[in-house]
Structure formats: C-alpha cells, structure tokens
Amino acid sequence: MRGWRGLAVILLLLLSASTSFAAGFRLPEAGNKANAMGFAFTAQADNPSAIYYNPAGLTQLEGNNIALGVTYVRENGNQFTGTTPLTGGATASETQEDLNFFIPNLYYTHTSKTRGVAYGVGVFAPFGLGQEYKNSNTSIFRNQVTEIDLKTVVINPTIAFDINEFLSVGLGIDYLWGDVKYDKTPVLGPGAQFKTNLEGSGDAWGYNFGILVKATRNVKVGFSYRSGFDLDIKDGDFRASDNTAPLPVPMGTTRASGVLGLPATAAFGVAYTYERFTIEADLDWTFWSSYRRLQIKNDFPPYSSTQTKNWNNVCAFRTGVEYRVTDPLALRAGFSHDPTPAPTETLGPELPDADRKYYTVGAGYKVGRWTIDVSGIYIDKKDRDVSNIRFEGGAPVGQNGTWEGDAWLAGLDIAYRF
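^ thats the sequence. predicted structure below, dont judge the formating
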C-alpha cells in the first residue's frame, strides 16, 4: 500500500487538478476525444481513455498504447450580488478570483495478439474543487470560506475480456489519494476576527466495471459503473492565527479530521456509425446523495463544525458526433447538459453550483503510430438565485442573491502505439 500511496502523492503534486466543472465537483475531462464529443464515449470506448469511460472497450485496441494528456481550464470567477450575514442587510457584490487549472490523464494499455484479453492502468483526476475569494479580511463570505481546494488523483489498474464476438467486459480497482485545504475568517464581532486554515490528506479504495455490446456492425451499446469513495482525512493540521482582538478561543495548531463522501457514477451510451459519421448519446448518473454533510472534527471541540449539504442524485445528458474527413483526420463536436445536485436550501459560497451547458469541439489526427486529439469547451453556467441565510451550529451562514459565471477549457492528448 505504501508503494501506491507514494506514487499517488508524486502524481498529485505534479499533475493534480483543483477546480469544479461537472455539476458538483466531479471532473469528467479524462480524455480529449471524449471531451470533444461532449463526454459521450461510453459506447465507443475505442482509445486508451476507455479505462476511465468504459474498460470493456480495451479489447478493441491493438498492441501496446501509451497516452498522455491535459486539459487546461480558465475559470472565470463566479460573481455574486446580494446580501450575506456580514453585509448588514445591504446589497453588495463579490467576485471570486479568476483561476487557471490543469486536469491530467495518463494511460497505458496492452491488448493480446488474439484480441481476447487486454489490461492497463490509468491515472486521472475524477474530482476537484477550487474557489478563492480576493480578500480574506474583507470578503462578505469570509466567515464561511475564503479559500477551498480539493485535489484528487486515482490510479486504476484494469483488465478486460471478450466473452464472445458481441460482448466484452472490463473491471478495475481504484486507489484514490486526496488533499484538502479549507480556509475561513470567523467573525465574532466588530473588529474581532481571526483566520483558520485546515490542511489534510487521505486515501480510499474503490472499483469499477464496464460492459460493451456490439449489437450490429454499426451499433454499439455500453454501460459503465464506478463506485464511490469515502475519503478519510486523518490527522489534518488546523491552525488558528491573526487574532485581531482578545478572543475567547486559543490560537495555534490542533489536529482535525473528517470524511468526504465522493459519489459513485454510472453511464449508459449508444453509438451508431454510418459510413464516415459516428454519433453517440449517453445518460450519465452521479449519485451525489453520498454528500450529506461537510463535517470537521477537531481536538478542540469549539473548532469542530458540521454543514448540512443533502445533495441530490442527478443525471446528465451527453451527445457527440464525429466525422472522419479522411482516414487520418476526424472532426468532432458535442453538447452536454449537467444539472446541479446542490439544493437551494444548502447552497454555500464554497461551491455556488448551478446547471451547466457544455459546448464542445475538437479534432483527431493520426500520423503513423501517433495519434493527436485536441478539444475546446465552453461551459455556460445558468444564473442561480438563492435565498438561504440561516444559522448552523450557532453561526450565520448562507446568502440571498444571484450567482453567475462561466469557464473555458482546451485540451491535448498524445498517444503512441507500439
């Protein structure tokens, strides 16, 4: 286990993502062919990223394949207009920092010469969350959050088999390593506030499997499932500092812990190929009901906190089309609608989530044994009206107002077959 953990830590430091671009804090950007087709790839699953999208597709590949890719994210800071517990009833505005992120993917696969068995390993970042407010001393959300950062990386050994000429299955084991940072500035009265910082890391195990049916020469049907994770943050460092007035709480470092429920996912897709066109449509479920609360336990009990979340399970619709202009060149486009799992009653400034529409384009080109895939994505977040100022654990939280925001993404994958 130490070997897995050491590799995960290295990859987390070098390749980690921290952002939030499916509804909630799921990251579906695990391969740029799929990115360009609106993430509708469960039934095609015909390149190394099948390890993520549907491992049963690995038996379609030939020989050894290695693929390395990245998706660049430009997150335009969400903008809020309204009131919070710190505005005294007056309408104010707050804009999060504009942030830049990189979402990685890395795959190796081997398919036997008889094409009946395949195996491989994938490395990707399935969840991430990054939000930062510009001034931790004056932000109208500072008593709730000033910065939050969730980074994850999964190492996923996988094997796949052809049951017969029509049916393939695949399964894998998932080792997840996660790192969490959560800062805020509690306010106890006029001129009386201090800063808190929580940092911790943990790991979890899960599994995944997939099924691929070649119903006819032109039609493929796929299903995939990934289990959830209970990310156990143990022995985190909680630090209180910068006391601006004599406060009845100690400054210094204590130990903190918590468990973050990361959701299971499932996808069902159908792909149809006619001459040079391939079109696919997927339904993609995320079982966010695992995210019931955001709880921090501290050795100093007054620093412990629990925020109710009670997120809902959601189903996204994804569709994409590919036109193979020539044997080497393919053009792609897609669309995805991703509903938010966050109910208005518990929506918080750490993740002011909303329904999202993805508009995607891209291309692929083959040169000998090399394949290059590129993608571009625009994410349009629906304006979100919220009215939920309330008390939790004796502290005022929430906001009354409107959130708006959007983001741009661009990605590149390079693969080599040998």
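The chain is about 5% helix and 60% strand.
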